[in-house]
Amino acid sequence: MGNYSVPKPNQSDKNVIPFIPDGEFYFTKGVEAYQKQKFELSLKWFRKALSEKPDHPLYQCQMSIVYTEIGSYHKANQLLTRVLTAYGEEYIDCYYLIANNYAHLGLLQDAIKYAELYLDKDPEGDFAEEAIELITVLDFEEDEEDDDWALDEEDEVLIYQETVFYHLEREEWQEAIALLEEMIALFPDFPQARHEYHYALFFAGETVEAIDLEEKYVQDHPETLNSYMNLAIFYYHTNKKAKFDQIVTMLQNIYPVHEQQKLRMATTFTQIGFYEEALLRFKLLHKSRLKGHPSYYRWFSTCYYFVGNEEKAEAIWLEGCKEHTILTKQLRPWKRDKLI
Question: In CATH, what number does 23-141 get?
Fold first, then answer.
């Protein structure tokens, strides 16, 4: 047996330093998972890190970046706003990150505002070039959002948007309509609420009113892309062929910059039966930024089904079901009587 001796009770304990994970350990694991694009795992590690140090600014910033990657832009901005409130000038990059998230949400004025704040505070910063480019693009795209919103209103808007998004994704039209009516009353200059309201109205059965409202809106705001996408769907379902053909021709020549509008364009082409066109648009999307949207999986799988690739359609649908339990409770769109 050699010179090996059995340690006396508790003797070994004196020579072993116990390993107790701390916030820094969890944070490092979160960064490693993020770098491997394992975003859900990364979020779990960052949550553990924040449970150890709830107010740590770097942990919150890095977690916000993961939320941005998966398309949870509201949650990302909530974290970044907390950091700015607590640490202000120490974390100026937060202004740019918030601007980027607002751009993805289609809140163009807010995106420009935060990008300009970033440049005012750090004109030579790491994101200066990106901020200038963002402002240039948004200034070009901006058409109807000329309002000068107070910053303290934005949190309330985000809460409404998140809840409306929840009901629209579940096709709970009446619930969405009630909330959108409140939004329009509270924030009359917030255009996205009106387009979502018209969409929900249409599929709740108020087709004539929905079309009338959207047509009136586009007369007053002729450069509004969301109106044209809504009307393409409305005209398709009501067999207004001449108007439908005119709008589709226009949409085929438009390629939006922001991911949210890119997704909306892809889903619009799917809903009007232009599956080849829709498939091309879906392939231009960054999946990592849209995993938070059940509609991404719903309509991407539908495209593949109708172009004859049922195996791919089923694979994308099942992937979506793993990400969103709501899809497990719905029929596959191609098995419905009509697509909506």
Answer: 1.25.40.10
